[in-house]
TrEMBL record:
It comes from the Bacteria. Residues 437-535 form the HTH araC/xylS-type domain. Transmembrane segments: none annotated. Residues 2-119 form the Response regulatory domain. It comes from Paenibacillus baimaensis. This is Response regulator. The keyword ATP-binding does not apply.
Length: 538
């Protein structure tokens, strides 16, 4: 803390400096002034928390100084030290915020008590000021988010407007009697690559910057609209335009302002006029449709106004028509063949004059459905986890640095993705084959035991259906027949030993029942065990 002693008598200033325990009270800077005029200059410069002042001084006396302090430094705590026991002087001190009035000659205990009281009062008030300042900071941070969410809710629930109408009128100049509005969406989905890289680590800063730029245009007097972050989407800013006549010119000015401020071009979709607030949901759908149907191959127009004839679009191409060569190339494992197959699809796209987000998402859906079918065909119910996750991944628009659709970039991304899928598929198939051979080896080592498909499935943590299918694919025989054939082959060798009884041989190859063993053996070989033994010994 800082203190200043104001008195035209030097010995009084020295006495105060000696009598107050400055360090104990946390006061580390002490200034001196011989009159009120000099004091105002020092107080303005240093802003001391504790002020000692005489009442009778040249140039500016204590009366005038107290009045000046109340206006220019009200947080300071003032202690008057005077040689005059005058009621009017005391009254003036209290009237203008003085903490205490001490008579000369100065009583040390009285002075120390007054200074402690003043220091404690200032510290309490300072703590409250800091708390209030922090509250204000927090409110300033929360306030925009609060209004963004309130305004976002009106898109889905326009009837909620009435409850917030008065506050919105005071905050944003939104007339509660407004009959019509227009709505625009500023999309970050197709922002340029340079802008994306600039803000990739702080998307909140981009939203903050964009809404501020928009509102500089919209909130001029009189207010023409309000821009806010739409919390039901990851990449949209909503511009609510007051009235039916506010529109294209203002949004073009906003687009130019965005370019001037952050050197980025963003697409804007705009609805026609709708009743306010009831028409907000429909206005949002139309502004969204205007964006989804814009031509991604061009970037010469940022503002896209909804047109009724573009409400429904059908893809000019069908991805399914180009899927079979892609499927076969992935199965082949050849990166060259995959590249050729993808190139066929991209060449077909290159003949189109327009491509919209609507069409891209349709093709993406086709690809996802086909890919799922391929995985079922290749892996059945045991699809590798990485393939399931990849099929659920979000579609990222292949855009160049200007924000236009890049067919070459899309070709590169799709080719790389399919090559990776092919490599992972081949690797996984190799692992599957290894697992099937492990199962065959396990059967060979345990054929003489009561071995079943259920027991094998539990041992290898695989489903019975999966083992049956893959085993049949690999060995062209089902598991049970493989076990039987192995047991019969072993029995044939044992039957060459004339000293072994049929019952013994049955037990040695995994059959507890001699009759059942004989029945299985005859069905498999065409001869009973005894007949086979006689024939083998001839």
């Amino acid at each position: 803390m800082k203190a200043i002693i104001i008195d035209d008598e030097k010995h009084v200033r020295q006495a105060i400096k000696l009598l107050v325990p400055w360090e104990e009270l946390g006061i580390d800077h002490i200034y001196e002034a011989h009159d009120g005029q000099e004091a105002t200059e020092l107080i303005t410069l240093h802003k001391p928390q504790i002020i000692f002042t005489d009442m009778m001084m040249p140039l500016m006396d204590g009366l005038k100084l107290l009045e000046w302090l109340q206006t220019n430094h009200p947080s300071g705590k003032t202690i008057v030290i005077s040689g005059f026991d005058d009621f009017q002087l005391v009254r003036h001190t209290v009237q203008y915020g003085g903490m205490d009035y001490i008579l000369k000659p100065i009583d040390a205990d009285q002075l120390e008590a007054a200074v402690r009281k003043a220091a404690q009062c200032w510290q309490q008030e300072e703590a409250e000021r800091l708390r209030q300042q922090q509250r204000n900071i927090e409110m300033n941070q929360i306030r925009p988010v609060y209004w963004d969410k309130v305004l976002s809710n009106f898109i889905m629930e326009p009837h909620g407007f009435e409850a917030a109408a008065e506050a919105l009128s005071q905050e944003f100049g939104l007339d509660r009697d407004m009959k019509e509005c227009r709505l625009a969406i500023i999309s970050l989905e197709t922002m340029s690559g340079s802008l994306k890289r600039k803000f990739q680590s702080n998307l909140d800063l981009l939203f903050f910057s964009l809404t501020n730029i928009c509102n500089e245009f919209l909130q001029q007097k009189p207010p023409q609209g309000i821009a806010y972050r739409y919390w039901n989407s990851e990449d949209e800013i909503i511009v609510l335009l007051y009235g039916a006549n506010t529109g294209e010119e203002l949004l073009n000015d906003i687009a130019n302002g965005i370019w001037t401020s952050i050197k980025g071009n963003l697409d804007i979709g705009m609805s026609p006029a709708h009743p306010f607030p009831a028409g907000l949901p429909f206005a949002y759908k139309q502004a969204k449709a205007a964006l989804r149907h814009r031509n991604l191959l061009r970037k010469d127009n940022q503002l896209h106004v909804y047109q009724e004839q573009t409400a429904v679009q059908h893809p000019a191409l069908v991805f399914t028509d180009y899927a079979e060569p892609i499927r076969l190339s992935v199965r082949s494992g050849s990166a060259v063949e995959i590249g050729k197959a993808v190139q066929g699809w991209i060449q077909a796209l290159g003949k189109l004059s327009t491509i919209s987000i609507e069409e891209l998402e349709h093709w993406r859906h086709e690809y996802t459905v086909l890919r799922s079918r391929w995985l079922i065909e290749w892996f059945g119910d045991r699809q590798p986890e990485f393939m399931i996750d990849a099929s659920r991944s979000d579609f990222v628009l292949p855009l160049d640095d200007e924000g236009k659709l890049s067919l070459s970039l899309w070709q590169e991304q799709l080719t790389d993705s399919l090559i990776q899928l092919s490599n992972q598929m081949l690797e996984h198939q190799q692992q599957d084959n290894n697992a099937i051979f492990e199962i065959a080896k396990y059967i060979q080592n345990h054929y003489h035991q009561d071995i079943t498909l259920i027991e094998i499935a539990q041992h290898f943590y695989l489903s019975r259906e999966y083992i049956s299918r893959k085993f049949k694919q690999q060995f062209q025989i089902n598991v049970s027949d493989y076990i039987t054939q192995l047991r019969v082959d072993k029995a044939k060798l044992l039957l060459l030993n004339p000293h072994l009884k049929i019952a013994q041989i049955a037990g040695m190859v995994g059959y507890d029942d001699e009759k059942y063993f004989s029945k299985v053996f005859k069905k498999w070989i065409g001869l009973s065990p005894n007949e086979y033994r006689k024939v083998s010994q001839l």
